[in-house]
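sry for the spam today, last one i promise. struct tokens for design, 171 residues
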């Protein structure tokens, strides 16, 4: 795992991917909540925002929290794994975030460890959007970064070169 120094164009691409992943996952989650399919009592971003600000808030505030969070972790994925933006790496990130939700954010908003204070269904209810996050993050990165991912040709401007290890040989 290497911390990659991105150029301005890659920052813009990665940010666009993060915002798109956020919008798509939010649309699915809101649709699930509105239709009664989702076991969550409200969007987690909204519940977290209400907990932090200690007052009821409209849905767009929760969606803003969700967008900032999702975009930040999408950027982290690209910065850490720019040389190989694989599905497995996106999936591991999603699993780590899902576990963080279950043991930190659910208790923080009053839903208990793993959401058990509301329902055991919250475990799966939280897993689905995180799996969707992994698929969308990986797929959109493949689309936006294109050929550079397929042949793993991105090998410049990372800390290994800046620290004097020299460029890697092409595969």
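last one done:
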């Amino acid at each position: 795992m290497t911390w990659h120094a991105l150029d301005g164009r890659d920052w813009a691409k990665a940010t666009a991917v993060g915002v798109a992943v956020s919008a798509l996952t939010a649309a699915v989650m809101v649709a699930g909540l509105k239709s009664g399919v989702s076991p969550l009592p409200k969007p987690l971003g909204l519940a977290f925002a209400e907990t932090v600000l200690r007052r009821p808030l409209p849905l767009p505030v929760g969606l803003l929290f969700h967008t900032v969070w999702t975009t930040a972790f999408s950027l982290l994925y690209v910065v850490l794994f720019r040389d190989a933006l694989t599905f497995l790496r996106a999936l591991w990130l999603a699993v780590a975030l899902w576990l963080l939700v279950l043991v930190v954010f659910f208790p923080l908003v009053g839903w208990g460890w793993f959401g058990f204070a509301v329902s055991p269904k919250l475990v799966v209810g939280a897993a689905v959007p995180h799996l969707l996050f992994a698929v969308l993050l990986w797929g959109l990165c493949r689309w936006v970064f294109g050929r550079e991912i397929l042949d793993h040709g991105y090998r410049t401007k990372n800390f290994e070169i800046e620290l004097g290890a020299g460029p890697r040989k092409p595969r």
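The mean pLDDT is 87. ok im logging off now
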